[in-house]
Amino acid sequence: MPNNIENRGLTDREMLQLCLELEKGRCRSISNTLLETSHKELREVYKQCFDNAEQNQSKLFEIMSNKGWYKVEPATTEQIGKTQAMMQNNLHPDDQF
Known about the structure:
The protein is an all-alpha fold. The protein is 69% helix and 0% strand. The chain has one domain (12-96).
């Protein structure tokens, strides 16, 4: 669908991009709240909300990716190795001393 500037409407791509950004923000917000919640039952509610937001985000990403509107480059073996090493160091920081 071409850009609809004359009528000030949004294209399908723009709408999906906005929805995707909203779901990403929801995931960040809910995860921060979840980490700060000590009440067991309330934590479960936030976990369900997070799972729902994450599923929505994943579906939106998949739709955009399938249409070629959200492209990501596959990681190289070297990038994966560096990330694994960094995560190992962060998981076991005492091993460095």
